[in-house]
Amino acid sequence: MDLASAICPSISSLSAKMPTKRITVALNTNQSQRAPLLLPLTLSRNPADRESCRALVIKTAQTKLKFRKGSRIFVFRDGRELLQEQDWLDALRDDVILLVSAGEGYVGVRKEPTPEDGPVPSPDCSIHVLAKNALVDSQSIAQIENTVRTLPGLVHACGQPDLHPGSKYPIGAVFVSKRWIHPPLIGGDIGCGMSWYRTTLKRSQVDDDKGKKVGEKLHGLEGPWRSQTEREAWLTEGHESHSAGAEWDESLGTIGAGNHFAEIQVVEQGSSALLENEVILLVHSGSRGYGGDILKRYTSASQDSLHEDDEKAKAYMKEHDRACNWAKCNRDLIALRFLSCLEPGEDAWALGQNKCQVDSDMSIADVKKTLQQRKVVDIWHNNVERTRWPPRSPECIDIQQATSLALSSDAPTIVPGDDTNKPLNILPLPGSRGTPTLILRPRFTASTKFGLDNALSLAHGAGRSMSRANAYLAMTNRWGKAERLTVPTSVLFQRPHAKDGSDIRGGTWVICDEKQLVFEEAPEAYKDVYRVAEDLVRADVAEVLGWCRPRVSYKVRNEGR
């Protein structure tokens, strides 16, 4: 039996038995000579395999077009040569025309894909869902599947264990995209992320009822921070300014609403980066209203995607990067304002108080430098990140030959903005205001294709188990008054793998003057953070190094707003 018979006994019988893709085979030197081909989707895209798409295309040219020595294959119009498996994955779509060559170069004028060609979804985008123990509903999975079917350029999608439905696109998912940028996948809170900072507090100062006294010190954290001149100085790094203009800069140093918070925590089980019994500050916030404004200006009802060569895409990425840096500066300023309350005797933190007059830009630069010494880690989890794809073993990386793609990221496992794919040492995995934050370390192993399965990302939290509307109804019925959810409660959480079988009991003082938000953000509205972590460990993409107990969780006060 010859190769054509082995792969495809006949086009008609094949189409009745298995799914196919409709393409056209033509001669490179005489492109009017063409033959239709129903390409089986079961065939390998790897041109080195015996039963591959390449082999069948060559055989079709030989049998249907009487072409004897086919050795090279090009894509009609853009002139791309199909040499590797990824080339075939990118090129194969319904009605594509493939040109078979006897060895000569592409005949014709090469035309690079442009936005005018229209977005073409990738038919071969892989989907990998890490959730097994963590609750994931069918709507979340459907949103991932619909996303890869409708948006162009996607080559891989990963559903993290914190996966839950969004208004149109899923939350807790990571998408790897080639040549296309998708602003709605990042959303309106561009640059949202988390930062850990050390404090000089002792755990005896925050444990039990002492946490309430600490919470009572947290004032002056709302409203605009100082003058616009000082805000612009805070947003300046070297000779580069990240200012978004006076309108948006007024929000600098404020947490915002939704699931954003600043939390005083005690390290119960430490690591080399965070020591047991340390009191630390976890800040979760983003670009405030600025990111939402960017999203509105660069998307419309008819356009969710931007080709990277489009001037609009370049302008979006410029503002995207500014928003990410703005958000990072925002988290630092939030930390400064908190430290000015928690460590009032420290001269470096006096700038955090609006009443203190410090006019020198150098003073701001010095304070920022001092603050960096307290910072343990800072990550974005709503952003586009350029990275080499697919990931490879560190010792195999060839920087010159690696392909750069856009990564719409959850919590990254590599240092943001670092083109060497340098791994992060630790990451926070917060649960909810009444549950622990786990200390994670990313893992890169051959079993996960060195980060391909999880798209070089990890879950950035426990993820919601109830929508805000459902949580509000359920929690108001259960608790009645919001105040009952702002004091420490004996919420019981089984600690997995604990040698002594001990449990973790909640005990967090919550500061939140917006009653609806108290109900919407109740611990019961979130998944079990330990189940989320178990899925990450089971998938071999992370290990749990330790955990932190929340003692004071700050959301918002109705002052200075």
TrEMBL record:
GO biological process: RNA processing
GO terms assigned for molecular function: GTP binding; metal ion binding; RNA ligase (ATP) activity; RNA ligase (GTP) activity
Keyword field contains Nucleotide-binding: yes
Enzyme class: ligase
Pfam families to which the protein is assigned, alphabetical: RtcB
Gene3D superfamilies, A to Z: tRNA-splicing ligase RtcB (3.90.1860.10)
UniProt: Mn(2+) 2 binding residues: H284, H381
Essential cofactor(s): Mn(2+)
Cofactor, free-text remark: Binds 2 manganese ions per subunit.
InterPro entries: RtcB, RtcB-like_sf
Amino acids binding GMP: N259, H260, F261, A262, E263, H381, N382, H460, G461, A462, G463
Keyword entries, A-Z: GTP-binding, Ligase, Manganese, Metal-binding, Nucleotide-binding
Amino-acid positions noted as binding Mn(2+) 1 in the UniProt annotation, renumbered to this chain: D189, H260
Enzyme Commission (EC) number: 6.5.1.8
Keyword Transferase set for record: no
Reactions accelerated catalytically: a 3'-end 3'-phospho-ribonucleotide-RNA + a 5'-end dephospho-ribonucleoside-RNA + GTP = a ribonucleotidyl-ribonucleotide-RNA + GMP + diphosphate
Catalytic machinery residues: H460
The name this protein goes by in its record: 3'-phosphate/5'-hydroxy nucleic acid ligase
